[in-house]
Amino acid sequence: MKKIKFILTIFVLIIIYIYVCFVTGIPQSIVLLKGEDLKLKNLYGIEITELAKTSNNNLNISNAEISLFGKVPLKDINITTIEDIQVVPIGKIIGLKLYTNGVLIVGMSEIEDKNNTLTKPYENSDLEEGDTILKINEQEIENIDTLKEVVNKSKGDNVEITLLRNGNVVTTSIKPVETEEKEYKLGLWVKDAATGVGTMTFYEPTTKSFAVLGHGITDSDTDSLINIDSGELVTSKVISLKKGESENPGEIKGTIVNQQTIGQVAKNTQFGVYGILNNLTALNIDTSKALKVALRDEIQTGEAKILCALDDSNVAKEYAIEIEKIYKDNDYNNKSMLIRVTDEELLEKTGGIIRGLSGAPIIQNGKFIGAVTNVLVSNPEIGYAIFGDLMIKQINTVD
Q1: Residues designated catalytic
Q2: What is the pTM of this model?
């Protein structure tokens, strides 16, 4: 009898665990395009009930409750439905300046102390490359200058460091080392900003939002997504183009030196970089050329076009591509479609997809369907693209 009770208890606990994991896994906020179905896995007894509904411009916001058999409340969620959204595909090269929230650790090295002895102050501190230092002794670290100032004030006393690691806040400590120049150092290589160029995907007139790249900007030293505090969108000028080859991706090189700030960056996500565009004139954006955003079910394999600029005129042109595969259930990364460049002119100029083309908008049957994101290193004619709905949802998603 005891054995049966034990087995039943374990069984009940497993069922409870399954339900808890299921409910916990449902996002607090869900964004849908008009006509898109709410896709949640079914679990016996789980019901969703709409409690209230409000409208704001082109958004319908529903407050809903998840319950067990409609009797036991489990969780409140918000479902935002975007009505008939249109965007202006851009396809022009732009520049980005990103400023981090704190300073990012990109490396570590021995330093020579005041006795000319090589030492590693970070050795027992639990600090890692890719960590972002947010505070030292409860003082916020805004940039590298602030870091140096706070470390020098320590006079070599142990300092407490608050850092961000993989989305989690971690606390550790470290003892700065005095150098022969009477400065105190941690032996860390850090950075507080990142710059680069890419292709602007679209402008959304209702919110005045822009989308760039279709993938996030990662630190080249740590390969982790840069956690930004702020940023600027600036005009850019193409200075050279390197044609891609197998195992040797090509690249559009641009400059942001002496260029104009035209917007503010709000967030850097795995699905692209987003913010508010203040100056339409600088990019000659014509809002009358706005297109509807396609649902995934409307996207087809076959012919499509990408819009991109390849020279210093920064005028975007249409080039032919082929959509070879569509991964309709992919909501977790930016590899939503497998695409192939078929346009002879583009192949002659670039060899296919090259660095800098990430974010180039894709148009099919008169609708915006997504953007170029990655190239297949082994064959630059082939690459990946992200669904347009994933990019649109980022504008209305609160981090």
Answers
A1: 215, 343, 358
A2: 0.80
